[in-house]
Amino acid sequence: MVLQPKVVFLDMDGTILNHQNKVTLKTVEAIERVRKSGVKVAIATGRSYGEVEEILPPNLVVDGIISSNGMSVHIGKDRLVENTLPIDLVNLIIEKAREKQVYYEVFPTEGPRVTLVEDRPFMEREVDGEKPDDVVISEWLSRKEAIDRDIEWKVTLDSDKFSKFYFFSRTKDKINAWKDELEQIKKSINFTTSISSEHNVEVMVANVNKASGIQYLLDRFGVHKSEVLAIGDSDNDFPMFKLVGHSVAMKNASDRVKQVVDEVTEYTCDEDGVYHYLGRKIAFREGNEKGSQ
């Protein structure tokens, strides 16, 4: 079956990023080809906008970026949507994370992610030593890089505008206990949680997710959701999959993700799965090129 969407939304981790957190040249070429055929391509990721800018290669051009699971929406450098967490919620969650010694990163709407310096000892212990077998290498490397380079360690928070929290644990028991703690906090202050692996959880503004960001861009583009294709691999892609006309999971996605989509790619993110899928499935309109089954 050859597809003719008007917009393609792509997740990053485990989708256009391989497990070394890289976008290959083949993937860049595939996205460029899709866009040249008249189909818009946008990113929909749990990563912050600053992370997206840092990771995506400069020659990769897209028509929009939904970051922090819908908390922020950009076209080019222009921010169209900015959601922020209540500062009392931010302070409460940091207090609880310190009490439970849970690894956390909080992301301002501008600038690098932040962790309070007094929490650095237990943060470093969480990623010390060898990688646990059931933690994916991309997430482990990202946490190592965060500790060594990406986190700005502060004595106090000097902003009241934060887009999301990211939490991680090397053990499933600890992160699951933290998810239970977050559910208790929800009873007093409402917010949304999302996961992209069995070792993390993120916190965003209530009722904000990838689907809400996608709908905003679709309204701006004048495109109906039935004319949209989305590719992802994780639980935080569920709202996106539910919204769009055609949903696709990566071969490397979990079985529970594969069960809710229309299709699964033939190749993994480490095998240029997006490149192969777009080349086979999108009906290119330039010249005589056509996607083939």
TrEMBL record:
UniProt-listed InterPro entries: Cof, HAD-like_sf, HAD-SF_hydro_IIB, HAD_sf
Keyword terms: Hydrolase
Superkingdom as given in the UniProt entry: Bacteria
Record bears the keyword Hydrolase: yes
Any one GO molecular-function label of the UniProt entry: magnesium ion binding
GO cellular component: cytosol
UniProt cross-references to PANTHER family, sorted A to Z: 5-AMINO-6-(5-PHOSPHO-D-RIBITYLAMINO)URACIL PHOSPHATASE YCSE, PHOSPHOSERINE PHOSPHATASE
Name used for this protein in its record: Cof-type HAD-IIB family hydrolase
